[in-house]
Structures are given as structure tokens and as C-alpha cells.
Amino acid sequence: MTTMPSFAPHRVGVGLLERLEPILGKENGLVSAESPLDPMTSSTSSTGSELELVELRCGPPTVSSVECPAATFSWAPLSNVPEGLNPTYMLEIQQLENAESSPGSTWLSVYRGNKLTCKVSELKSGRSYAARLLASVESGSLADETSHVAGVEVRVLHADHIVFATPSAVPSGMQPPSLVQRARNALKLKWTVPEDPGGVFDLTYVLQVSPAPQGLEGSRTYMGFVEVYRGPERSFKVVKLQPGVRYTSRVQAINPVGEGPFSLCSAYTTQATVPTQPQPPTVQSATASTLTLRWTPPADNGSPVTGYSLERDDGAGGDFALVYGGPNTTFTLKGLRPGTGYRFRLRADNDEGRSIWSATTTLLTGAAPPSSPEAMQVTSAGRTSARLVWRAPEEDGGSNVLAFEVELQAISRAATACMGTDWLKVFDNEVPGCTIESLCPGCAYQVRVRAKNAAGCGSWTLPLQFTTAAHVPEAPQTLHAARCSPSSIYVLWAPPRHDGGSKVLQYRLEMAPAGCHCGMCPQALAAAPAAMLPYGPPGVGFAVPPPPPPPPPPLAAQHGSAMLRPTLCPAVTPVTVYTSETVGWEQQGLQPGCRYIFRVQALNAQGASPWTEWMASATTADVPLTPAPPAVSCVTAADLVLSWQVPPGQGAPVTQYSVEVATLPQAPAALLQLPGRTGIVTDPWVATLGFKLSYRGPETGCQVRGLEPFTAYAFRLCAHNDVGPSQWSVCVAAVTGHAPPTCPKSLAAQPSSSSLVALSWAPPERDFGEPVVSYTVDMAAAGRSGHGGGKNAGNGSSASSWSHVYTGPGSACQAGGLAPGRTYQFRVRACNACGWSPYSPVVTATTLPAPPSAPGKPAASGRTSSGFRVRWEEPEHTYGAHVTSYVLEVSEAGTDEWAAIYTGSDIATKVSSLLPATKYLVRVAAVNSAGQGAYSECEAVTTLLLPPLPPSDLSVKEAGSELAMLSSDAAMQGASPAADAASGASTTAVPAGSQTSVLVSWQEPASDATHAAVLGYEIVATPKPGSEAAAGPGGGVIKLNVAGRRCDARLEGVVPGCLYGIRVRSVGVEGTGHSGWSEEVGVATRPRPDMDALSVCSSGGAGVASGGSATGGMSQRRSGTGAKRAAKQRQQAAAGAAAPPPQALATTVSSNPAEDGASGPNGSNSSASRSRARAGGASSRVAAAATVVVAKKLRKATALERLADETPRWFGCAVEAVAKTLFGPNWRREYIRQLRTFGKYMFLLCVVVLVVLVVLSKQ
């Protein structure tokens, strides 16, 4: 770099900044055109002689790094800048032609600001630049090279510029090549110099195109491009290109440093030309008269093919003629000659012109079937054959005729019945003629012929019709009986299938009887005898005299295994009954149910046809003739017997008979004179009666039942066969006999009182000819009414037996002596000379209600000192009305004053507010809508005494260190330790520390007439919270039951060093309950010096004191298996000692009444003595309770209890605390029950959830 000193100031114009702003941007510190630079110099003030001049020197900039296309500049700050002035720096650059060139006057400002470094971008590679730094100071809004601040003039001296060069690089990317000239086989392209050549170098350019020109197809390509030029020129003409092809080009610049990137691609198309010569057309498909050609489109040379021209000659080598012009590549030519070769050529056209013609090709059509034969004719036609001849076709289609085919089709109906309506092949041969056989006489046919060669069959000739010679007709068809009646047969047939070629002129019908007269015919085995043949119609005579009409025999009979057809008996001559040209004939005057045979033949001009087979038919049967009136016999009051004769069946046997009966409202007087008479009734009005069917069956007699006595009836008869019913016969009348009357009518029952019901009725509707002489009334008790209530109410039972109430001619009576509120049933019947009538419908009546009966005797339960509970039974009889309430009365024994203490509908109540130990009488009465009933029997009830008062003056003291345990016998006798020693009872010494006991004493409570005597006492010692005894089983609570009236006891099993609360309560005699607890006395047991500090109380011990047995206690927990086994043995021994036999306990309680009386506070008390006298009866219950308590204490420990007892102390205490939290302080007895309850609830919850899931899954 070269530094040239220069201190001439320089101003930068605004126009230059506006031009630089888009290039450099504001990030380089340029000042926008809206804020031009302040002037760099200013003139000296006129008072300059008075200012101090300060010169500041601005050093040149330093190029710290150059990385094309950017350079980083830095400079040193101005030094000694007066206070109050701020320096501002501006960097300017200028491009030089080379490093030795001098800069011009045009500088480009690239930075202005107060920083000491800047970065300039957008520099060109391999170029020299000049750079200079300008500085100024600012005060307020002025920035000059010379500034005036506080009498000081500041002038900045600038250093000269520096020169630096950017490093060389590869050329930058170029613009895509542009088109200069276009030709059919060439494209001239040009391009510009790259924006950054990478330095001052002579560049080399590389031009690539795609696709490759002709001759360069095998050159190495990259991405499909082929290099076509490399040199310094900036234009090039690419030759040997294809017309109308689009070519893509790109260019690249190269300098000594390296190759620059390729430019973007540009694409240009060469000029188009006419298509290339097409290939000749080929055959896609060919027939005898058509050719379908196709061809491949040629190269279009840049202009799409717009159409094709196809030419062909005449098939004989003549000139070409245009046959197709269009854009398609296929064409079908029609109307060509079979087996002929035609020449074709093809040309393609586009917008540039027409291609040259393709090479000529010759294509052949296929062979064709021959034309139709000529001159076809029938030379002769007989009854069953015809001769046919023809000539060969004129055109053979390019192939020799190989054979002729002849087909025949029937026209006449007879011919079509034989061979149908389709064409049938009858001849296939190379001979031009044939004879057709097996034809029907007199029938019309048509025939056709065609020729065939190797290409196939030709077309048929026009059909030629001919007719065979006439003959006699065929036999008529389908002879049958269209309809039959009892006296006629309508025979119908169809014309012959073929009339023989001549019209049918008439038909001939013959008839004969179907039967055998000679006895030798096959029909003789199955048909009727010859004597039973029917006679013919009027005017037609048969050889056999006419017999009576027999039943029709079967149309055919079996003989062996062959079906026999109807035949004519040789002894019978058939009779012609019809001759005419129409089909069908009805033969009249025949007998019902007879068989006949018929046959028919047709006649034309040639003669008569054969006869048809015999056809058998029979006339139908008719209804039977009207039967005679039936005969009447055996007439009674309710039935009679009818009989009759069998009428003629008219061709069908009588199968059944119908008898109808109707009541005669106007019977003849002669009939009513005497029952059982009969007669014929012919009056016309009889037919209008309402006849009802009485009998239908095959018998010739019947018994008619269910008739009304002494009534006239009309009877008529009708016969039936398979055809239908006959006419009704003449009516016959009959009168039935006398009978007992009908039941009385309108029976009514009306209650008059609680024991009387009034009855009335009407005479019977009919007495059947005998007057009523008396009536009988019966009565029965019905089931208890729904209003009855009571224990037996509402059983709904019907009457079990009827009792007689009244018999006499009157039509009213009364039923007395009935129960109140009871339902009764009544019925009545009448009597005449013939007997008793049926009973009338049963009617019911209920007597008026009455007050109910007395309820059951009251029963008392749940007695207390102030009341009891009373219950009674409902009254046995409510007498017709429900019990609405009960009245309970109570009276003190020995008085007559009754007080109603309850009124209500319940059958139990609780009586309270009574005096203790007092006897009361109780009675109850029921009330219904009729009033209050009688009182029940009285029940005597005595209230209980009040529970005894609680003991007083409770005191506790600790026993000695060594205790004397009483033997079992001494414990049962209630002896104290002192008494035991006096009597010589044996004692056992217990080592010190193994057990601890305390002595408890109290004062017996006072007794009076209202409180019960004391039976015993209960002592409870409860460890205080926080003591070691509270962690033991059962919370460490010790219980002791004392039997008798002793007022002291020894409480065993207390834990040394623990605090207990002790209290006592009295137990009353005769189940009067317990008194309240006495005041609690706290006691702290003395700790043992040799006690293990880690031992804890784990189980209750059984304490035995004088006068009672221990039911609870605690045992000391020891570590080790031996200690646990010893504790268990001691617990079992204590339980055995605490559960004495009940007899011994009873003896202990009542052993010394005098001593018990002396132990009271006064020594003798009359009421207490009476109470103690009753104590002996309850001692056994106290002993049993003690045994139960001991048994409960000795139950098997559960897993949770063993976990709390046999684990380390801290873990056992934790289990004890958790169990108390979950199940309460009595968790050892309650948690199993709570767990079971919880398990039941969880099981029910699971079942409900399962049912809900099943229901949801089905939905």
C-alpha cells in the first residue's frame, strides 16, 4: 500500500450518497439522501485572532482483512479532542485501474459514524482500490474541520489515501446465452462477460447444448449436455442440428484461477421442414371385399404432421388414384374384388409442405364365397317325394365350387307337425340335383340351395314352393266327452292333423253301449253283467232290451298288468248318431249314470279317413228321489225315534240323510189331546218355520233328543248322494209327553236383621201340562264375607251343605236363627205330578253386622320396673264388620278402677309409667262399626324391681410381693386367704415378679322395697393411656366377677409399673340388671426391681379372688419360645380355675346367709333379706356368664392378634395402633366381624358391576 500525504479538505456530495445507498445499505453506516453530510470545512470567524487554534491529526485507515467480495477497515481515534466535541469518521473508496494508478476525484463514501472499524462488501475480485479516512468533530448541530468551542478553534488534518487489492477468484455466474440467428440446421448464440471475471484476465468460454448435434452423439455428456465450443469469443454458431428441434444451451467462463459456474439454461428451436419419407402402409385386416391399412407416422422435422394422402391403382396396373386424405393412421377400403392385388403409396403433410411418396407396396384381398346357383326347379312331385334340379353359380368367388347344400322347410300344418318350422338340410353333394323323400301327401313345402367353396358358403337362392299330391285325410284328433249331464253327453273332437290335401267334407259319429253281451269280451271281467246294459236314446234300438240303470262301472279295468281300452262287443251293432261337417255333437235322451262308447271318422273328396279309437264316457248321476215322510215312534217328554225307507239314488248311491226339526206354534187340536200322537202336516206355512238340523248320517233311523216336554214338533227328511241332496219330504208332526215344571223365577233374599232373611220368588215359566203343587227352599252358609275380618275371615269357601228352610205352596218365606254378619246362599224348586223342577239360580244375602267377640287373653313380655309390653290375638268372630280399633285397660290389683291406656288398631303396645314391683290387671276389647265387643280375660302382670344402687367407698391397695393363690376348691367356696389358712387349705408360693395383684374393697349399697337385692359385683381395671399394659390383648383391661355379697376381692394379673383405673358395680337379682359404676379409683402399681425393662404386657391373666372368679387379666410378655409357652400354660390354668361348675358357684353364693346379712351396712335389713333369699336362684346364671367370659378369653388368637403379640415391641405397638384406628378399642373381638361385613358388601358390589357390564355389552 502507498500513502500520499494530502491535507486538502474534501466535500462529499448528496447525489453520490443517493447512488451508494442501494448498494451498501444502512448497515455500513451510510447517510441517506434525506440527511446529507455536514460541510467538512468552515471559514474562520472574523474574531479569529482572538481564538486559540487546536490542530488534530487523522491517521490513514488500515485494512485488517480482505475476503472477496468484502474488506474490513480499522483506524486509530483522534487524540486530544477538546472537551464538548465528538469525533465523526467517514470512509471513502475508489476503484483503480491498477496498483500504480492515481485515484481520481470521484470517491465513494461507504461508512459514516463514530466507530473505529467497518466492513465494506460488494468488492470485485482481483482489483485495486484506494481508501481514505475523513474525520470531523461535532458540537451541537455543527460538524466542521474547524470548530469553535469556548474560544478554541479545532482543525483536523487528514492523512493521504491507501491502496489495497482484492484476491483473484473464479469468474462469477453468467447470463444465459441469447439467440442471434436461427436456421433449419444451425443456431447462432452469444453471451456477455460475467459480472465478476475474478480478476484482470483473458477469459475462456465453454458452450454446451442438449441434445447433441449430428456427429457428436457419442461425445461425453454431463446431464445430457455436449460441449460444442471452447474459446475467447462471446458468440458461436452451432451447426448440424435437426430441423424443428428444441435445443437447450448454457455457457461457462474460465480464468487462470478456475472454472466459474454454468449459467442458467436457455432453449431455442431450429426452423422446421417437411416430414421425412413415410414407410409403406401395411395390412391390418383383409376380407374378400375390404382392406384395412395402417401406417407409422414419420418424423415431423419440427412441424407436426397435419395429414396423410393414400393412393392406390385399379388392381390391373393402372394409374394411382387418391383414396384417403386425413390425419388418421388407419383406413378401410371397401368394394374391392376378391383375390385381387392392389398397389398403394403414402405421403405425409405438415405446415412446411409435403414429404416425398413412400415406396410402392402391393396388397391382396381374400377369396369370397360363390354366388347363388341358378335355374332351380322341381321337375316332379308325388305324394311322398319330389325331384329338384339347378345350375352352378356364375361367380365362384375366386375358388372352385366344392358342393351344394339343399334345405327344406314345411309350410302346411301337417308338415310342420312332423318336421317343425325350421329349415332342415336334406342334401349336401357336388351333384346339381336331388330327390327329396318322406314328404307328407298334399302338403306345401319350400326349398332353397347354395354353393360353397374354400372361402365358405355362398348365399341362398330364393325359396321355391311346391305341393305334394292329395290323399284321404288322417283320423280326427282328441275325441273326448266335453261335458256330461244326467241325460246327455257332449262329444267333441278336433279336425284331422292333415286333411290329405283335400278339404274335409263331413264327419261320421257312431255310438254303442259300453258293455259285454257275449261274455267273451275283455270288459266282461271288470264291467257290469250283460243284463245291466243301458238302453239307448229314443229312436235308437239295441239288440238287448233296456235294463234298469246300474251304477256306472269304471272306465278301464286292470287285467294282469295291461290297461284295457274300450272295445265294441261283437254282439252289439254301433249306431251312427251324427253326420255333418261341423265338429262336436250332444247326444240327448240318455239314462243317468250309464256308460257309452263313441268313435268318429272324417271324409274328403279322396275318401274316408280311418276310424278313431273307441272313447268311453258315462252320464252323470242325479240327486236321489224325494224320500217318504219318516215314521215316529218311542215318544217321551224329551226325545223320540224316527225311521224311514231308502229312496232311489238316481245313478249314485245314497250316502247320508238329513233330518230337521221345528216347533209347531199352531199344532192341530187333535195332536194336543194326548201326548205321543203323530200326523202329516201339508199346510204351506210349515215350510216357513225355522227348521234346525237334528241328525245327519248314513243310518235309516235316528233318535231326536233335547225336545221340550208337551210341545208339538214338525220333522222332515232329505236324502244325499255324491250329486247332492234330494227334495225335502212331507213334514210329519208329533207331540212330546208331560214333564216336571221349570225352576221358579225371580228368587230374591233381603236381610231383615242380624239373624233373619226374607225370601220371595215367582212361579215357574212352564209347568209342562201338570200344575205346580208345592215349593221347597234350601239354605247353606257361604264362605266368610270379605267384611267379616277376624282370624277366619276371607277364606272364600262355598257352601258345604244345604239345609231345608221351607216347603209349601206359598211363594215367600223367612229364614231365621242366622249368625250376624254372615253370608248365606238360598235356592228354590217347584214340584208337580211329574216330579221336581231344577233348582233356581243361587242367590246370596248377608245378615246385618254385630259387635265383635272378645279378643284373645293379653300376654305380657319385656317387663321392666316401669312397664311392660302387651300383645293379644284378634277376635275369633267379627260378625260382619272389620275391627277398627282396640281398647286396652289397666287396673292395679286389689282395686276396681280401670283406666283405658291405649286405643288403636295395633294388636300390641307398650305400657309405661307404672310403679315398680306392683301387680296390675290388663284386659282388651275390640271395636267395629256395630260397636264395642266384650272384654277379654284379665292378665296379671307384676313390674320388676329397680336395679340395685352402685357400691360406695371404693378403696384399692396393693398386695405383698409374694401372693398366695387359692386352690380351686377354695375359690369355688368363696373363702378369703385368711380363712383358707385357718382351715388348712393348701397354698402355692409364686415367685416374686411373676404376678402382681391388688386388693379392692367397697361398701355394699343400701337396699329398699323398690330396688333389687345384690346378686354379685363386677370389677374392671382399665390401664390408663400411655401405660405398657394398654398395649396388651384387649387393651389390657382386667375384669373380675364376684358372686355373693362379699365387699372385697383380690384382682390378679395387674402389670407392675402401670397406672390403672378401677371401678365396681352391682349385679341385681332376677334379671333386674346392673347398677351404675362407682366412682373410679386410680392406682399405680409398683415397678419390680428385677423386671425386664423391655417386657410388655401381651395377654390378660385370670384373677381369682375370694367370693368370685377372674374373667380377664394380663400376662407378662417374655422373649423367646419358652416364655410364650409358659404364658399360654398359665392362661389355660387361670381359665380352668376361673370356670367352676355352676353347682359350686351356687353354693358359694348362698353358703352363709347370716354372714351375708352381717356384711351390709346395718347388719340386718328386711328387704335385703328377702332379696338375698332370691339370690340362690340366679347364682347359676352368674356362674354360666363367668364360664362364657373365660371361654371367650381362651379363644384361638387370630393372625392379626399373633402379629401384635409375638413381634418386636415397636412393631406390635404399631399394629395395635392401626387396628384400634380401623376397628375401635375392642378390635380383637370386632375386626373379624367388620371384615366379614365388608367382604359381603364388596361381593354385592362386584355382582352389581358384573350385571351392569353384561347389560351394556348386550346393548
From TrEMBL:
Residues that span the membrane, as ranges = 1238-1256
InterPro entries per the UniProt record, alphabetical: FN3_dom, FN3_sf, Ig-like_fold, Striated_Muscle_Regulatory
Compositional bias of kind Low complexity: 41-50, 1129-1138, 1158-1176
Residues annotated as region Disordered? 31-50, 1092-1176
Against CDD domains, the record matches this protein to: FN3
Pfam families, alphabetized? fn3
Listed A to Z, the keywords are: Membrane, Repeat, Transmembrane, Transmembrane helix
- Note the superkingdom of the native organism: Eukaryota
Q: List all Gly residues biased stretches.
A: 1100-1111
Give start and end of each Fibronectin type-III domain.
57-159, 170-273, 277-368, 369-471, 528-623, 626-739, 740-850, 854-946, 982-1088
The entry's protein name is Fibronectin type-III domain-containing protein
Protein source organism: Astrephomene gubernaculifera
